[in-house]
Every structure is written in C-alpha cells, then in structure tokens.
Specification:
By secondary structure, this protein is mainly alpha-helical. 79% of the residues lie in helices and 0% in strands. The longest helix is centred in the last third of the chain and has 54 residues.
C-alpha cells in the first residue's frame, strides 16, 4: 500500500486526507441520525399521557427537552401552547428548521469531498502525462522506467480520486435522503402535538417552570 501511495506522487496526500474526512463524517452522521436517537418511539404518546394526567413536572419536562431532537420540538410546542394555534405552529416551525440545520451538519463538506476528489485524481493524471511527454522529449522512448513511472502516477491518482469520490457521493445522497425523511417525520409529530394541545383538552394545563433560552439556544 505504501508503495502505491509513493508511486502516485504528492497528490495522494490530499486524496488520502479527503478519504479520512469522508469516513469521519459518515461515521458521525450515521451515529447522529439514528432514528431511535432522533425520534424515540412513542415519545409523543408518553408526553400526552403525562399532560392529561397532570404528571408533567419540571424534571420530566427537562428530560423531554434534552433527550432528543423530537423532545426539543415537543418542549417548544408545550411552552407555546397557550399562545394560540398560529403562534404555536410558527414556533414549532422555527425549532424544526434549527434542528434540520443540525441534521445537515457536515453534509456540505462531504459533498465537497465527493466533488474535488476526482478533480485531484485528474490533476494527478495531467501531471503524470506531462512527466511522460517531458521524458519522451528529453530522452526519447528508450527510458521505459521513466515512462512507466509517469503513467503509473497518472493511473494511480485517478483511481484513488474515484475510489474516494464514488462512496462519498453515495453517502452524501444517502444522508440527504435520511434528513428529508426525518424532517417529514418530525413535521408529522409536530402537527399531532398541535392537534392534541389545541383541541381544547388542556386548557388548564400549566407549563412546567423552565428556561426558554435553553429550549431555543441561540
């Protein structure tokens, strides 16, 4: 492997760096965008049960808010439920936009890696061919070692760039689709909360004491 890297020339360094960045982002996004982490099962049902039974105290409210992205959405809705449907819906949309922005973290970087990796490989190809033609011009076609070195550099960097770019592009699209699906699921849960809390069943519900700045951090 080291011999292949050395044969590819100095452009293998940024290509390898791109591969490291791509792998790190993929691992981090896989971990952060787990469905059970973002949308805990039956969370809305449990919260609604606590509200109806007047069991939603400050401790449970804090656990909901800090437990998951969906919990943050529900906490914002609970906080603003007395301000009317429109205000509640607007506050939920703002909170959802912030959370979706967090979901998309590092995806632009992953897309950039997918775009520049083949270009780095192509640059290596161009430099390798320049080396080949320069050798032919100076020494003719008799120096097979020099010719092989230039061609090898050209082919290795191209292959390395594509090897990084193809999976990076795949996972970039994959995570974009995952974010879109999570956004739809969160929107559905938010709409359910609006219907539940604006249906006239919790008119006397008291919001637990909390710090609103902690729910919507700037």
């Amino acid at each position: 492997m080291l011999e292949i890297v050395q044969a590819g020339g100095w452009l293998m360094v940024p290509i390898i760096a791109c591969s490291v960045v791509s792998i790190a982002i993929c691992i981090e996004r896989f971990w952060s965008l787990r469905s059970n982490q973002v949308l805990p099962s039956n969370l809305l049902t449990q919260v609604w049960r606590w509200i109806k039974n007047d069991e939603l105290d400050a401790k449970r409210f804090k656990e909901i808010r800090n437990g998951s992205p969906l919990g943050r959405i529900l906490a914002v809705g609970i906080t603003n439920h007395r301000r009317g449907r429109d205000i509640m819906k607007e506050s939920l949309e703002e909170a959802a936009n912030s959370i979706i922005h967090d979901f998309e973290r590092y995806l632009n970087t992953l897309g950039t890696v997918a775009a520049i990796s083949p270009l780095l490989g192509l640059l290596g190809t161009v430099l390798g061919m320049i080396r080949v033609f320069t050798t032919i011009k100076l020494e003719g076609t008799g120096n097979a070692m020099m010719l092989a070195g230039g061609i090898s550099e050209a082919l290795i960097t191209t292959a390395a760039g594509l090897t990084v770019a193809i999976p990076s592009l795949f996972f970039y699209r994959f995570f974009q689709r995952r974010v879109d699906q999570l956004a739809i699921d969160i929107e559905q849960e938010a709409l359910k909360l609006i219907e539940l809390m604006q249906g006239g069943h919790v008119a006397q519900f008291e919001t637990p004491k909390h710090n609103i700045d902690q729910i919507n951090p700037k």
